[in-house]
From TrEMBL:
<dbReference type="InterPro" id="IPR036651">
    <property type="entry name" value="Gln_synt_N_sf"/>
</dbReference>
<keyword id="KW-0067">ATP-binding</keyword>
<dbReference type="GO" id="GO:0005524">
    <property type="term" value="F:ATP binding"/>
</dbReference>
<dbReference type="GO" id="GO:0006576">
    <property type="term" value="P:biogenic amine metabolic process"/>
</dbReference>
<feature type="domain" description="GS catalytic">
    <location>
        <begin position="123"/>
        <end position="487"/>
    </location>
</feature>
<keyword id="KW-0436">Ligase</keyword>
<dbReference type="GO" id="GO:0004356">
    <property type="term" value="F:glutamine synthetase activity"/>
</dbReference>
<dbReference type="Pfam" id="PF00120">
    <property type="entry name" value="Gln-synt_C"/>
</dbReference>
<dbReference type="InterPro" id="IPR014746">
    <property type="entry name" value="Gln_synth/guanido_kin_cat_dom"/>
</dbReference>
<dbReference type="InterPro" id="IPR008146">
    <property type="entry name" value="Gln_synth_cat_dom"/>
</dbReference>
<dbReference type="GO" id="GO:0006542">
    <property type="term" value="P:glutamine biosynthetic process"/>
</dbReference>
<comment type="similarity">
    <text>Belongs to the glutamine synthetase family.</text>
</comment>
<keyword id="KW-0547">Nucleotide-binding</keyword>
<protein>
    <recommendedName>
        <fullName>Glutamine synthetase</fullName>
    </recommendedName>
</protein>
Length: 487
């Protein structure tokens, strides 16, 4: 089973499974990808495991810093009394938290308390709905995730993890962000010796990810001071999104114990590479056959780059490309996201694709360089700051739309040697800011409305408008430095 540490977990199994436990931790995912949860007694958990429990709707009514959105949205508002929503544990998500005395852990999905229908803004529910269409046609969506992230040292010497947890925030209140020291200095991508500098942390992350069932397939230093990259073990899309979100939870938890602040911002440092969150996607049939692979190369393909890609794979690719500009807030959800998506930093900025082309928005991975079972699409636009459930929901929903409509690939492949931005054979320039992306996302004719519905688009779009407004009202260090004496 994709995200379970057991073959099967049923309600009948729970008393035995939790026999020696006295407490259980539960958590749901909010629109920013943060885990929101609590510890409950085993007795309470067993009583609510089947029918669920009330969870304050405010987790969909405030932002990542618990600030209420400037305009009330559809889930938590004065008209409904800021009521509870329904949270139902997903038994297949069972894990034990190895660094917290193996306390049992379950993810939940959120539902409307009146209709008992999935809550339209629940990230896990949105992905489940997106995947269900492909599943109904006999396919399983398979996915993999790669994350780059910076790591900073807690600036002062603190004797306890509790003080370490708040030290970075305290430091940044009194010092410029560039003063925050990186975990290690210098550019040491793929270094075998650099991780030895922080060996307990490095192996602690790897080992705890394995024990927490979000295992790492590849784990190495990346180019940038204190930057690591992790490739997670592939799985079905729903389980992969869970693993990606829980991976961040592991890294932050272990980092706290070592006085390290992991940073998944898309662009933490000016002039240095950003943090990507690439997602790999493929469809397989019931017997596990890769449905994107074409066993006999097409003698007259529309482009040589798709000679080994099946018709279904081509339509799926076309669907992502056709809808990409309309779902950008799901791939790049913060103001900072767009500091990464700029020309000449090896991050895609146009509607583009190509066979084994890392400069494109979508890299096609297929024969002759990949085995048939490894045929897939790598979506390279998302940053490490994106909610993995929303990223995969968008990828699958757009791709399946392309399959249903039998869409043709809208732009030719990015020519070898072309960089991102400005090439004549690329498609439209993607949004340059969160404000621009949100306007496109929310417009009446948006593909996002077609595949996800008005309720989700209005809610998530409203949360992004909130982010933009906070940014527009902020006075930054750059502004003060530039203008304090000169205007």
């Amino acid at each position: 089973m994709g995200s379970s540490t057991t073959d099967e977990v049923t309600l009948e199994d729970l008393p035995d499974l939790l026999y020696k436990d006295t407490r259980v931790k539960v958590a749901g995912v909010d629109v920013d990808g943060q885990l929101r949860g609590k510890l409950v007694s085993k007795k309470k958990f067993l009583s609510m495991a089947e029918e669920g429990f009330g969870f304050c709707s405010v987790v969909f009514g405030w932002d990542m810093h618990d600030q209420t959105y400037f305009k009330e949205l559809g889930i938590s508002n004065k008209d409904n009394g800021y009521r509870d929503i329904l949270a139902i544990p997903d038994l297949s998500s069972f894990r034990r938290i190895p660094w917290e005395k193996r306390v049992p852990f379950f993810l939940v999905r959120f539902y409307d308390p009146d209709t008992k229908e999935p809550l339209f803004a629940c990230p896990r529910g949105l992905l489940k709905s997106a995947v269900s269409k492909a599943e109904a046609a006999g396919y399983r969506a398979m996915a993999g995730a790669e994350y780059e992230f910076y790591q900073f040292r807690v600036p002062d010497t603190h004797p306890t993890p509790e003080r370490n947890a708040s030290a970075t925030a305290t430091f940044l209140k009194e010092n410029p962000v560039e003063a925050l020291p990186p975990l290690t200095e210098g550019m040491f991508a793929y270094s075998l010796s650099r991780p030895i500098h922080n060996q307990d942390y490095y192996y602690g992350v790897y080992d705890n990810c394995r024990l927490f069932n979000c295992g790492i397939e590849g784990w190495h230093t990346e180019s940038g001071p204190g930057v690591y990259e992790a490739a997670l073990e592939f799985d079905e899309a729903k389980a992969m999104a869970d693993k990606a979100g829980l991976f961040k939870f592991v890294v932050k938890s272990i980092g706290t114990k070592h006085g390290i602040t992991p940073c998944f911002m898309a662009k933490p440092r000016q002039g240095l590479p950003g943090n990507s969150g690439h997602m790999h996607i493929s469809l397989v049939t019931a017997d596990g056959t890769n449905a994107f692979y074409r066993s006999t190369p097409d003698p007259s393909p529309p482009y040589p780059d798709v000679a080994h890609l099946s018709d279904l794979g081509r339509h799926f690719l076309a669907g992502i490309l056709s809808g990409l500009p309309d779902i950008m807030p799901m791939f790049a959800p913060t103001v900072n996201s767009y500091k990464r998506l700029v020309e000449n930093f090896w991050a895609p900025v146009t509607v583009s694709w190509g066979l084994e082309h890392r400069a494109a928005s979508i890299r096609v991975i297929s024969a002759p360089t990949a085995s048939p079972k490894a045929t897939r699409l790598e979506v390279r636009v998302p940053g490490a700051d994106a909610n993995p459930h929303f990223v995969l929901a968008a990828v699958v929903a757009l791709g399946w739309r392309g399959v249903e409509k039998k869409l043709d690939i809208p732009v030719p492949p990015l020519s070898k040697g072309d960089d991102m931005g400005g090439a004549s054979d690329q498609g439209a320039r993607l949004a340059k800011s969160l404000g621009e992306a949100t306007v496109t996302f929310m417009r009446p004719e948006s593909v996002a409305r077609e595949v996800f519905g008005d309720a989700f688009v209005d809610h998530f779009g409203g949360t992004r408008e909130h982010e933009v407004r906070l940014w527009e009202e902020a006075v930054t260090d750059w502004e003060v430095r530039r203008y304090i004496e000169t205007v």
